[in-house]
């Protein structure tokens, strides 16, 4: 894990759905593509809203999710997490998400995942190049959050770890474009259902995918 890829990131936001709460009371643990600030921003804010125009503050910090394992999804750019008493997942804890953000995140994750409550340990300091060596980390107290647990068939998962640095270096461009731009007009939410069946390593979540288009405004 590259130390520079896990950090405290400040950004701002406003909900996409007017009827949803402005409270920003949700905390979520992300362990895959959503650890990248550009991908998270694209999902929560849509393709046209820069961070500087939004109102509430998101705080992101590295964290550990115990008793779970991260694995690669076959023929996809993103990973899955499943319960496993002998493993720990390193990811990011994001605090301040709104009801509107969670609605968009649920759509983005799709039917392969189920949002569930978990307890994570924020990483205060330590060897971020080896975050699994918990004895060398200073951890904060347990924090309640939600994360997306894989609920599709386990046969769709590979028996190996997913690499965030590899995603950022080689695959991120398929999700947010070069330089973080997003593009195209966005289609109706229903089209996201069709995208999950496409032969696409982002499975509709990429730059011009149907799930991404459904998230647009």
Description:
With 217 residues, the protein is an alpha+beta fold. It has a single domain, classed as Roll (Hypothetical upf0131 protein ytfp), CATH 3.10.490.10. Helices cover 20% and strands 32% of the residues. The protein is built from 6 helices and 7 strands, in the order ββαββαβββαααα. Strands 1, 2, 3, 4, 5, 6 and 7 form a 7-stranded antiparallel beta sheet that branches. A hairpin with a 6-residue loop joins strand 3 and strand 4. It starts with 8 loop residues before the first strand and ends with a helix. The N terminus is likely disordered. Pfam families: GGACT. Keywords: Transferase.
Strand element count: 7
Q: What name is given to the CATH topology?
A: Hypothetical upf0131 protein ytfp
N-to-C series of helices and strands: EEHEEHEEEHHHH
How many whole angstroms does the radius of gyration measure? 16 Å
Give a quick set of tags describing it.
217 residues; alpha+beta; Hypothetical upf0131 protein ytfp; transferase activity; Putative gamma-glutamylcyclotransferase
In short:
By secondary structure, this protein is an alpha+beta fold. Helix content is 20%, strand content 32%. Residues 8-21 have a biased composition (Polar residues).
Secondary-structure blueprint of this entry?
Layout: E1 9-13, E2 26-30, H1 37-45, E3 56-72, E4 79-97, H2 99-109, E5 113-125, E6 138-139, E7 143-150, H3 164-171, H4 173-176, H5 191-195, H6 210-215
């Amino acid at each position: 894990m590259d130390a520079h890829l896990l950090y405290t990131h400040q950004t701002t936001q406003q909900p996409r759905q007017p009827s949803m709460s402005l409270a920003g009371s949700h905390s979520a643990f992300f362990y895959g593509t959503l650890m990248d600030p550009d991908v998270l921003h694209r999902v929560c804010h849509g393709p046209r809203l820069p961070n500087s125009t939004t109102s509430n503050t998101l705080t992101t910090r590295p964290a550990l999710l115990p008793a779970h394992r991260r694995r690669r999804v076959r023929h996809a750019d993103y990973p899955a997490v499943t319960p496993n008493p002998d493993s720990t997942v390193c990811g990011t804890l994001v605090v301040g998400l709104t009801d509107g953000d969670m609605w968009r995140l649920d759509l983005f994750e799709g039917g392969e995942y189920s949002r569930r409550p978990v307890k994570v340990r924020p990483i205060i300091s330590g060897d971020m190049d080896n975050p699994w060596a918990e004895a060398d980390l200073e951890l904060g107290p347990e924090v309640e959050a939600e994360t997306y647990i894989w609920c599709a068939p386990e046969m769709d998962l590979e028996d190996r770890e997913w690499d965030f640095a590899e995603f950022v270096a080689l695959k991120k461009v398929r999700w947010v474009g070069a330089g973080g731009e997003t593009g195209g007009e966005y289609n109706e939410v229903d089209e996201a259902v069709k995208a999950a069946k496409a032969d696409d390593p982002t499975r509709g979540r990429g730059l011009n995918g149907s799930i991404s288009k459904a998230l647009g405004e």
